[in-house]
Amino acid sequence: MATRVYIVDDSALMRQTLTHLLRGDAEFEVVGSAPNPLLAAPAIAKCRPDVLLLDIEMPGMDGLTFLRQQMEREPIPTVICSTLTTEGSRMALDALAAGAVAVVAKPRLGLKQFLEDSRRELCQTLRSAACATARRAPRPVATAVTAIKAAANPLASVLAMNRPVLIGSSTGGTQAVEAILMALPADAPGIAVVQHMPEKFTAMYAERLDRACAMQVREARNGDRLERGLVLIAPGGRHLQLRKAGGQYFAVVLDGPPVNRHKPSVDVLFRSAVDCAGKDALALILTGMGDDGARGMAALRERGARTLAQDEASCVVFGMPKEAIARGGVDAVLPLKEMAAAILAFDRR
Predict the structure, then answer these.
(1) Active-site residue, selected from the candidate residues 50, 267, 280, 292
(2) Would you give per-residue pLDDT tens digits along the chain (349 residues)?
(3) In Å, how far are 13, 103, 181 from 173, measured between CA atoms?
(4) 9 is an active site residue
(5) Does the CA dihedral 151-155-158-160 come out positive or negative?
(6) Cα separation of 118 and 80, whole Å?
């Protein structure tokens, strides 16, 4: 049965373009569209689509306000279709925090190849959304120990034991990663994160996390040292690896073809840690569609690393953890709320 999609966008040309991108794929059926949320709401209540494809910046009522209302009334897996402007990216991240399951860059018009590339990305994202469990995102709660950022002390960070923590996530992962980081203290071990997210969104996502968390969070730059109290987010459109030199871990940010259809890829990060970190690493695989990270996690576990997967009940999409479990790459399966404690327990080991 085809996935039923409803489109809300104030541009008639964009609604036509999105419909065209989905037409010809028997997996999807566009069941309706509207230029604004006020017209969309009664139609959505009547036709009950499987997935909502939602613009953010619209007159009358913006997409973020509509999404929050819809998630209160009847949660529907929602994909945000946003421009790559600063304001568009900020609102898209707010929408993810409000319960949207994914964000795609709004396609530019008039370039045939770009439209074809957009179609592949859009269809893959909608497939993930159709498998998602739509729920209003819980508000992350910081613990008492996360009130103050770690003081800058380069000598202390070099001398402190630093066992790297690796996190891979996709659909639903922005909220999951935020929930984990907000529960960690300022001196937690260094963390490298691959979250499947379009280019230009990751820098703003890192800034958002940095404001909310006790740890310092930034988009990874080539050569960054992964030290205690620091979280490095893989840049959208680039892969992130780790290398070890002088007993310390450093970020390697590089270009290259997509791996498992993703760039950044979780497998690229995990595999890089197999040789340079091995049993000193902790790897977490969180909510997401597909199998990215499953092979790398199995290789890490074989090398002696500690490996954890998010449980099905707390996942938006159980795909990536399920594949990692099936490949024998997981030591333990935990609910999201226990992941931060597991990181701290590993650090004390």
Answers:
(1) 292
(2) 899 999 999 999 889 888 988 887 889 999 999 999 999 999 999 999 999 999 988 888 889 999 999 998 889 999 998 876 667 778 888 898 888 988 887 766 554 555 666 677 788 888 888 888 876 655 555 444 444 565 544 444 444 557 999 999 999 999 999 999 999 999 999 999 999 988 878 999 999 999 999 999 999 999 999 999 999 999 999 999 999 999 999 999 999 999 998 999 999 999 999 999 999 999 999 999 999 999 999 999 999 999 999 999 999 999 999 999 999 999 999 999 999 999 999 999 7
(3) 31, 12, 12
(4) no
(5) negative
(6) 14
From 170, 265, 272, 314, the catalytic residue: 170
CA nearest to 21, candidates 116, 150, 157 = 116
Rounded to two decimals, the pTM is: 0.87
First to last CA, the chain: 49
Residue 292 annotated as catalytic: yes
Write down all domains in the chain, each with its CATH number in brackets: 3-130 (3.40.50.2300), 144-348 (3.40.50.180)
125's tokens: 């994202």
Q: What are phi and psi of 58, to 5 degrees?
A: -140, 150
Q: Is 20 annotated in the active site? A: no
